[in-house]
Design a protein that fits this description.
By secondary structure, the chain is α/β, with parallel strands linked by helices. The chain has eleven helices and 13 strands. The relative contact order is 0.13. The mean pLDDT is 96. The chain binds phosphoenolpyruvate and manganese (II) ion (MN).
Length: 347
Amino acid sequence: MNSHAPQAAIDRVVSEIQRMGCQSHLSQGRFRTVIGAVGEEGLIDQNHLASLDGVEKVVPIMKPYKLASREFHEDDSVVEVGGGSVPKVKVGANHAACIAGPCAVENQAMLNRIAREVRDGGATILRGGVYKPRTSPYSFQGLGEPGLKWMRECGDELGMPICVEVMDTRQVEQMEKYVDCFQIGARNMQNFDLLREVGKAKKPVLLKRGLAASVKDWLLSAEYVLSQGNRGVILCERGIKTFEDSVRYTLDVTSIPVLKSWTHLPVIIDPSHAAGKRDYVPSIAAAGMAAGAHGLIVEVHYCPSEAQCDGPQALLPEAFKELMQQLRKIAAIFNKEFVEASEPARA
Ligand code: PEP
Ligand code: MN
């Protein structure tokens, strides 16, 4: 729409798009409103839309992902995680955020202890899995709902939004009551039913890159969530499978500048799962931030040898704190800032 298009003109275009049997999606930028018309190509009468009052131009988006594309939304999106009982944390544009915590919630005492450590070290969002996607069915699978309740209590106590992995469509409704952010794991990046289900939810989604997914596949998965009306998608580069076997996965640092050009969505990195080994985590985290990531998600444990899951890659709290000090400096070079946690409601 041209920059002075009145609301009535915007409403008219929206209703015309719907009349053609397409979905309309509004994007309010700094200078103009863009109205996305999503549907089958044959349904859209471009000349008619171009003739409507207030329309500046009609531009076909050639990319297969539409709502995720830069063409649809020129500015970087800022996703807010939290609100309600905990502060809101912004991720995207010049806001960097650190999500940290254990791989899995093992018991309440360990969760509370790690959460306090990561908060003191500079994390503003707490992670902790209660449904774990394990390669072996005999490995620890997570504690389920009791773990979810502890995560909620702990987040509220420390003033941190919580991010928890959802593995199944049947968990979405239950989890939405507790979590501030759904994590979609790498192994579920193309679980399209799950993507649609969290797309209908009102909480933001941290979408990890699939183990063998291209950036395009990944953005099409983001499109599933966006197309259901959920605009809160944060991408997470967590490493992909390559022939290299010296580390667990290969963090594709290149995907970060590629995403910056292709999408408006924020992207964070997960150096823990990429490295698989704590010694490598800081360098990979630094590389990701230098490449333009909007923060990171990282696993921390005070006694990794006792961890039920992913112990070898967990940072010790001291190392985490040190890493955050370095990342703040790197972020500053690229005009990003890790916001400090605000005071908790109850200390
Ligand atoms: C996790 O975050 O603990 C996890 C299982 O990650 P991913 O899906 O990236 O393997
Ligand atoms: Mn893990």
